[in-house]
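G.,

No rush on this.
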Amino acid sequence: MSELSEKILKNIAKGMENDLLSNGELVQIIELCGSYLNLCSRTEYAKQNNISYNGAKKNRTNIKLFNIFFVIDNE
């Protein structure tokens, strides 16, 4: 993990623990990260790209967040 990412994670944790960040602000951070990743559920990604669900599952970068699988397509 890079020094920058460690600092970001530490500051987010500190912000939440000390009530410096609200839930809404934390959601905004998550949404911003998702937009940079071009994060999309497998089902939605398959629909948007006219491929099968299994095509998205087997041939794209998949991650599991909050017990849901997403496709990362930021290349």
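When you get to it, here's the other one too:
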Amino acid sequence: MYVSAKIKQSRIMCDRLEKLDATENNAMFGDDDINFDMQLERFDVDTGALKEPAVERIFRAWVEDWEEEARKKNDCVEEARLLTKYRTCVQ
């Protein structure tokens, strides 16, 4: 009973915090934070390009044959190959 009440309370809090228009004191960010542009136009920054949606990349998380050996080698070439494949995860 106690655990289910805590789970329900946590879900309510999570739903409340996920709202974009956060007006409560414990909110992480709100509409003002998202719309704030730091007056970057004064520094010749194109804020229109910053507001464009990011490029969507599809990550397929299967392990390729060459990766089995590459992960066990201490080689900078193999490290570069792994970083090239998984760089979309880090960006």
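The mean pLDDT is 77. Residues 53-91 form one domain.

Enjoy the weekend,
O.
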